[in-house]
Amino acid sequence: MASALTNVSLSTFAPTARGDVLARPQAQETCSEDAASGECAAAWDEVEELSAAASHARDKLKDSDPLENYCKENPETDECRTYDS
């Protein structure tokens, strides 16, 4: 039986940071017949990778400063001016 995750790449879910939740039922279904199969291991590896990607995305959002992000995109605005002494 072919894995349901075969056609799914990390890039499909990583931007949404919710891919781990979406891939988990697919992994459970893949493992329902043979929990010791290579396909089952690959399916849970995929869930683990997606979970890690989601965690890293959440951490990146926590560490970001909204004003710093704004100034990276709009350095010419008054709010982003810096002065040399």
Q: What distance separates the N and C termini? A: 69 Å
Which class do the helix and strand fractions yield? mainly alpha
Mean pLDDT: 78
The oligomeric state of the chains shown is single chain
- How many independent structural domains? 1
Shape: rod-shaped
Major β-sheet annotation: none
> How much helix, percentage-wise, in residues?
55-70%
Strand content: under 5%
Radius of gyration: 20 Å
Low-confidence stretches: 1-17
Query: Can you count the helices?
Result: 4
Number of strands: 0
What's the SSE pattern? HHHH
Q: How does this structure look, described?
A:
The chain is rod-shaped, with a radius of gyration of 20 Å. It is mainly α. The chain contains four helices and no strands. The N terminus is likely disordered. The chain starts with 9 loop residues before the first helix and ends in a 12-residue tail after the last helix. The protein has one domain. It holds the Pfam family CP12.
Quick take:
The chain has 85 residues and is mostly helical. Helices cover 60% and strands 0% of the residues.
Properties at a glance:
mainly alpha, single chain, rod-shaped, 85 residues, 60% helix, 4 helices, 0% strand, disordered N terminus
Q: Which SSEs are present, and which pair or pack?
A:
Elements: H1 10-13, H2 19-31, H3 38-63, H4 66-73
